[in-house]
Amino acid sequence: MDQPTDPVPERQSEQAAEPQICCDCGYITYEPIKVGEAYAAGGVGQDVFACPRHAPSYLVGGTP
To answer: What three-state secondary structure class fits 48?
Structure first.
């Protein structure tokens, strides 16, 4: 069985970002902005995303 392969790095940056769920409003955003990271006790981390409307409140100087 063939396994999918990652695109070469120069092509990866040209692709659109994957849709993510906004950590503030809970809606799916097609323009996710990484606003933080969440860690579990097992050490596995996960990126936290916000939509463009809510991201400024999570970035430096903002008020969540």
So the answer is: strand
Q: With CA atoms as reference, report the closest residue to 33 among 64, 55, 17.
A: 55
Would you say 54 and 36 are in contact if contact means Cβ atoms under 8 Å apart? no
Mean per-residue pLDDT of the chain:
79
Give the model's pLDDT for residue 6. 55
Tell me how crowded residue 31 is: count the other CB atoms within 10 A of its CB: 13
Greatest alpha-carbon span in the chain: 50
Burial class (CB in 10 A: 0-12, 13-18, 19+), 55: buried
Residue 50 CA to residue 22 CA, distance in Å, equals 4
Q: How many residues does the chain have?
A: 64
